[in-house]
Input
Amino acid sequence: MNCYLVGGAVRDALLNIKAPDRDWVVVGSTPDHMLDAGFTPVGKDFPVFLHPNTKEEYALARQERKSGKGYKGFQFYTAPDITLEQDLLRRDLTINAMAQDTAGNIIDPYKGQRDLAERKLRHVSDAFSEDPVRILRVARFAARFHLLGFTVAPETMALMTQMVKNGEIDHLVAERVWKEFSRALDEPSPDVFIRVLRTCGALAKLMPELDALFGVPQPAAHHPEIDTGEHVLLCMQRSVELSQHSEVRFAALMHDLGKGLTPQHQWPKHHGHEETGLPLINALCNRLSVPNPHRELALAVAQFHTHCHRAFELSTKKLLETLQRLDAFRRPERFEHFCVCCQADAQGRTGFESRAYPQAEFFQAARLAMSTIDTKAIAAQGHKGAAFGEALHKKRLSLLESFKKNYKVKE
Output
């Protein structure tokens, strides 16, 4: 039995990056041998075991054969005579198809070190085309390593494009798409994930509502980048700089979907895009099984981001109504995320990246001012039910009016 460190741990070590975990391949063993050695079985589709001490995953060397559509359409074969090279051949990218033996020697049969040096994401073999999830994985690795200079190799992009044309991507299940998408949102350059999917044609299949934004113009005076698709990618990347929460990044990407439905004769203006975008967000979230926190924030930002932009112009009544509809008093953390998204929208424009956005601070300060109201004192005055709600509403209006008169924008 020979054990080899494989995949991301080897790749990241060569890039001088700390790997989040370590995976191993075992050559020359059987499930019974692993059990006798004290390993715990955890694999469902093929034999994977946990080390009795380190709890790291050890998988038996295997081969796979395409047996159906989609990423589940595979049969796996494990045996003691399968070689390390045969196991590595089934992997997606050359930079993930390297191994290291216990003496520290790198085994690199498919030139992964060359592609690390050239900063290329290149498929190992034509078997890549049998698994549509690999399109998403390549896009995610592009998002992870973009800042290191990595790009998708032309032949790999061509293969991904052909896979989309052949309809292989149509067999992806929603949960797997969201799993890769959500992981991409946590990467340093999630906008690159979207760009790669769009380049190979996968975005139009998986997120047509988002793909429809590219080529839709906006007023150049407010959006020097003009293209709405480019704008939402700039917004998402700005949100990366402002927040670590994937809900914020997702909402920043989704907030202008309504502009994809604007009739061309109205371009470059997009009156009412806030409301028209809501059904599109719901449709996308339903299709991809997006979690509720992501959906709810995206809907809130889409519907009310222009209210935040016009914060200083809103009447006291409209400001209070907006805070209430955003559920700002009961859900302050989500309201904070909303304000971050609005800032990302305002600064996610070419040349506007460093422009001040005092509206977000104003919105937050307004919510904080409302939190000083003593609801127990209102109740002590004998107000109950609808009367209590009316008294609280009047108190909030009065306090908010005073807040607005005394508020000064920080320079």
Remarks:
- The mean pLDDT is 93.
